[in-house]
Write a structure and sequence with these properties.
This protein is of the alpha/beta class. It has helices spanning 80-83, 110-126, 146-155, 192-207, 228-231, 248-255, 257-276, and strands at residues 31-33, 65-70, 86-90, 93-96, 131-134, 160-167, 178-182, 221-224, 237-244. The protein has a single domain, classed as Aminopeptidase. It has 7 helices and 9 strands, in the order ββαββαβαββαβαβαα. A hairpin with a 2-residue loop joins strand 3 (86-90) and strand 4 (93-96). The longest helix has 20 residues, at 257-276.
Length: 278
């Protein structure tokens, strides 16, 4: 468990990945992970004295689908015309296509953090036989817009849609995570299913040692009517603000590989716990 100081996360800005996995998929296609790579078959049996290969790590497919939405994108800042265009945001509103996200005071970007954490969660879920779809394929592209991100989850028939973000509040003492969900609900999936997903994520992060937000929401949960990706979802959906990137202790955790792995581990377990009960 990563030791987190008193001050933690704030409201998210735009995501920028850090320590992105090598060989990212080409932009323009939705990344779908369904199986793990398998070892090449051998043409003859090894001598009895030879060490035996380890058992396969592939798990039986569960039939479950999770859409991971790493906030923002690394190319957003270079295309203001594209990301500032107005798109549907639900409840009769529009809002900018996307944003650039926030960053730590030392310059580690939200988009890098969310991309890295989402990759770690994806690999862990795929290893459990869960199909994973990512709303973006790398950390160098632009968008997609919030309405497109919602559509990816809807079209995939996702059992759970989880958006990964981090905040950038400059309020004194602002720290901690919160989990947002659409409220009041606009459809049945935004009701009990989304609240259960948000609660599972909140419980998982809290059990992992991460403190709840001191500045947004209540007890780690934040019902919101202004988030387009949640408003437009017809699947169980929640958005995790992992913490405040302007808080020194939380920024240090997010910028470290150990910290990102801890975030990924507790979020992965929370998603698994939610799927197991639904």
């Amino acid at each position: 468990m990563v030791a987190i100081g008193l001050t933690l996360f704030t409201a998210c800005g735009v995501d920028t990945p850090a320590s992105s996995p090598s060989n990212p998929p080409a932009p323009g296609t939705t990344t779908v992970f369904t199986t793990l790579p398998q070892p090449s078959p051998t043409t003859s049996a090894p001598p009895s004295s030879a060490p035996q290969p380890p058992p396969s790590t592939q798990q039986p497919k569960t039939g479950k689908v999770v859409v991971l939405d790493p906030g923002h994108n690394g190319g957003n800042s270079g295309k203001p015309g594209e990301i500032n265009k107005q798109v549907p945001a639900g409840r009769g509103k529009t809002k900018p296509c996307n944003t650039t996200g926030t960053a730590t005071n030392s310059g580690y970007s939200e988009h890098a953090f969310t991309w890295d954490v989402a990759q770690r969660i994806s690999q862990a879920l795929v290893a459990k036989g869960i199909r994973v779809v990512l709303t973006r394929q790398n950390d160098t592209g632009v968008g997609p817009c919030v309405d497109e991100r919602a559509a990816i989850g809807n079209d995939a028939g996702a059992d759970a849609v989880v958006s990964i973000h981090a905040d950038g509040s400059n309020s004194a003492g602002a720290h901690g995570f919160h989990v947002a969900y659409s409220a009041p609900p606009l459809n049945a999936q935004q009701g009990e299913p989304s609240v259960k997903l948000a609660t599972a994520l909140r419980d998982g992060l809290r059990a992992g040692g991460f403190p709840t937000s001191t500045y947004l929401g209540s007890n780690g949960l934040a019902p919101r009517a202004d988030l387009g990706g949640l408003n437009l979802s017809t699947r169980p959906a929640a958005l995790v603000e992992c913490g405040n990137m302007r808080n020194a202790a939380e920024a240090a955790a997010m910028a470290s590989e150990e910290g990102r792995q801890q975030y990924a581990a507790v979020i992965t377990k929370a998603i698994e716990d939610y799927l197991a009960g639904n």
